[in-house]
Every structure is written in C-alpha cells, then in structure tokens.
Write a structure and sequence with these properties.
Structural class: mainly alpha
Number of domains: 2
Radius of gyration: 33 Å
Helix content: over 70%
Order of helices and strands: HHHHH
Distance between the termini: 108 Å
Shape: rod-shaped
Length: 110
C-alpha cells in the first residue's frame, strides 16, 4: 500500500448531518455507483447501512409524534404561577365586591 492510500484510509472525515443525508440520497438513486460515492467521502458500506437505519428510525419517530400546529407550550416557574394565582384571587374578590356594591346601589335607586 502506498503512503497516499494509507493516508486516505486512515484519515477520518467529519461529515455534517446535511452531508450525510445528501450521501444517503445520492446512494438511493437508481443505478447509483454506491461504492464510488462512499469512497469519495471515505466511507465504507457498513456506514451506509448504519446511516439508513438512523434515517429510518428518525423518520418513524417523527411520523409517530407529529408536531402540532400552534404555539409551543412553555414551562412557567412555580413562583410565577403562585403569584398569578394570588393576583387572580385578589381580582376575583375585588370584582365580587364591586358587583355587590352595584347591586346595593340599584336597590337604593329603585
């Protein structure tokens, strides 16, 4: 084996998810030269097998848990929730008091 061949086989290329998906799509084309495509990126056939499994798993996961339209739910800190509940109770009491006073005023005027 020459030095150039050893360097090509020993170097490891870090591929982005987009590049991996492009490789997957390229290898999935009819009559695609899969071996040549994989060699171009320094990959072996078992890398493609693993990639196909990962893509299938991700697709099935996404299809079984589809995103719902609308605003995403967010978590509220417990202290903020308690403060909002306290303010709501105060507003309800104030509204009840105003409603009671309004009823008394209507009685006096009629």
């Amino acid at each position: 084996m020459t030095d150039n061949q050893q360097n090509n086989t020993s170097r490891k290329i870090k591929l982005t998810p987009e590049q991996l998906f492009d490789i997957y799509q390229e290898c999935s084309m009819p009559n695609a030269p899969v071996k040549a495509i994989l060699e171009k990126y320094g990959l072996k056939p078992w890398h493609l097998i693993a990639l196909r499994k990962r893509i299938k798993q991700a697709a099935l996961s996404e299809l079984s848990n589809p995103a719902k339209p609308g605003k995403k739910k967010s978590l509220v800190p417990v202290d903020d929730l308690r403060q909002a509940e306290k303010e709501l109770a105060q507003v309800k009491d104030a509204l009840a008091t105003v409603g009671h006073e309004l009823a008394l005023l209507k009685k006096k005027t009629s």
